[in-house]
Amino acid sequence: MMADTHLFWADLVAERYEVFISGLVIEELSDCPEPKRGKIFGKMNEIAYQELSETSEVGNLAEQYVHSGVLGKKHFEDCTHIAHAVVYGCDMIVSWNFKHLVNYRTISGVKTINAINQYNEIHICSPTMLLQEGKL
User: Fold this and answer.
1) Phi then psi dihedrals of residue 115, to 5 deg
2) 123 — phi, psi (to 5°)?
3) Tens-digit pLDDT profile for the chain (136 aa)?
4) CATH architecture of 2-134
5) Among 23, 27, 38, 79, whose Cα sits 20 to 30 Å from the Cα of 55?
6) Using CA of residue 95, residue 124, residue 76, residue 97, what is the dihedral sign?
7) Report field, pTM of the whole predicted structure over 0.85
């Protein structure tokens, strides 16, 4: 996993992908203890990214994910991450969070709720999956 993380990060530094990060991610990273926080923000300074703002549309969609059982209330922040990406029209979410994001149940539930609400489909994958796609 770590090797794939480094390869994926190199792609981000090389601007192979357009990167969007929600304000929620920035908040979560800001809560990390030092020296980890400094290292993370140092790495983030290596890439170009656009920060996405919280909107009522994002909050409403996250609530719909929870209400429909995509994830439980306890994981509302994960639903908010997904909702940011969907509302802002991102093509994919790349994550190592297999428990809550990169799994069949979440992906299927998000696909259903997005279709009902006429949002575009979003792909949720791990860096390894994305790197493998590039080798095809």
Assistant:
1) -65, -45
2) -95, 135
3) 789 999 999 999 999 999 999 999 999 999 999 999 999 999 999 999 999 999 999 999 999 999 999 999 999 999 999 999 999 999 999 999 999 999 999 999 999 999 999 999 999 999 999 998 765 3
4) 3-Layer(aba) Sandwich (3.40)
5) 38
6) negative
7) yes
